[in-house]
Amino acid sequence: MTQKHTTPDGLVIVDKPSGFTSHDVVAKMRGIARTRRVGHAGTLDPMATGVLVLGVEKATKLLGHLALTEKEYLGTIRLGQNTLTDDAEGEITSATDASEVTRDAIDAGIAELTGDIMQVPSKVSAIKINGVRSYKRARDGEEFEIPARPVTVSSFGVHDVREAVADDGTAVLDLVVSVVCSSGTYIRALARDLGAGLGVGGHLTALRRTRVGPYKLDAARTLDQLQQELTVMPVAEAATAAFPRWDVDARRAKLLTNGVRLEMPETYAGSGPVAVFDPEGRFLALVEEQRGKAKSLAVFA
Q1: 35, 217, 257 from 57: Cα distances, Å
Q2: Structure letter (DSSP) for residue 124
Q3: What is the pLDDT of residues 57-103, one digit of tens each?
Q4: Least C-beta-crowded within 10 Å: which of 89, 108, 231, 235?
Q5: Other C-beta atoms lying within 10 Å of the C-beta of residue 86
Q6: How confident is the model at residue 270 (pLDDT cuts 50, 70, 90)?
Q7: What residue ranges define each of the domains in the chain, with the CATH number in brackets?
Q8: Any idea which of 18-32, 180-194, 199-213, 287-301 has the lowest mean pLDDT?
Q9: Where does the tRNA pseudouridylate synthase B C-terminal domain lie (predicted)?
Q10: Do 222 and 13 touch, CB atoms closer than 8 A?
Q11: Annotated catalytic, 45?
C-alpha cells in the first residue's frame, strides 16, 4: 500500500534568489512541498535577495497577520542616476555628476528620510490604483500619480561611501546602507528620494532582506537546500516567535475551540493578535482582544 505524503503545517523561511518574483518562489515551493496550499507574507522585488516568509498548509492562515511587521535590509544606493523603476532593473532616465556630494549632505538627506515619513511608492510597484496594479499602468505608458502614504523608517545608516564611474561615464557615489522599517516601505523609493533631495538622482543597485519580524537570515534556506531537505518551522513555534502567547487551562481551551468568546486578561488589550495555547502546548488559535473578549482571527485546533 502506498503511503500518503503529508506536508507539515508551518512556515518556510526562504533565502530568495535574485531574478525570482515572490510568486516564482511560491510556485517552486508548491513543487517541493507537494501541496497547493502555499502563500507568502509580503513580496520581495525580483532584483532583491534574502528573507521571504512562506506559509505551508494551515500556516497560510497566519500569513495575513505576519505581514504587518518590521523588516531589515542591506542595500546599495547609487547617487548620480535616476532610473525608470528606481532600481537597477530599469533604464536610466537621467544622469548627474555626484562627485561633489559631501558626506554631511548625505547624512542630512538620510536624516530627512528617517522616522515617521510620507512616502510615494515607486510607479513600477504592485500597489493598486483604482483596482489596476501600478506597474501595469506604468508599462502601458499611462500618466498617473500614487498618493503618499505613512511609513516608519526606524533606522537608516550608511556604512560605506564609494566613488565610482558608471558605464555612461557619470561620476557616481555608491552608498552601502542598512534600513530597518515598517512593512510597506519601499527601499528603492528611499534611494530615489535621497538622490532627489541631493539634486543628483538616485536608485537602488542591490538589496538583501536580512529580517522579517522575528525571522532572520540565519534561519533561511535557499531553494536548492529546501529541495534537498524541506525545513519547516512548526506553526506553533512560528506563532510563539511572532505573537504574544496566552496559555489557557483545559476548560478555557475547550470553550475556545467550541467558538465561545473568552474573557481576555487586560495585559493583552491593544496588543494585536495573540497566540493561544492549551495546557499540552498545542497552538489553538490566533485571537484579538475586542471589548475585553477574545475574537478569533484564525483557528488551528
Answers
A1: 8, 22, 20
A2: S
A3: 999 998 888 766 799 999 999 999 999 889 998 899 999 999 999 99
A4: 108
A5: 27
A6: confident
A7: 10-69+213-235 (3.30.2350.10), 73-204 (3.30.2350.10), 243-299 (2.30.130.10)
A8: 287-301
A9: 188-230
A10: no
A11: yes
Q: CB–CB of 290/270 below 8 Å?
A: no
Contact 205, 231 (CB under 8 A): no
At 33 the three-state DSSP class reads helix
- The grid coordinates of residue 206 equal 542591490
C-alpha cell at 218: 540565519
- Count Cα neighbours of 181 within 13 Å in the Cβ-side half-sphere: 27
Q: Which three cell numbers stand for residue 133?
A: 496594479
* Nearest Cα residue to 239 out of 41, 72, 45: 41
- Out of 9, 15, 24, 45, the active site residue is 45
> Residue 216 has which C-alpha cell?
532572520
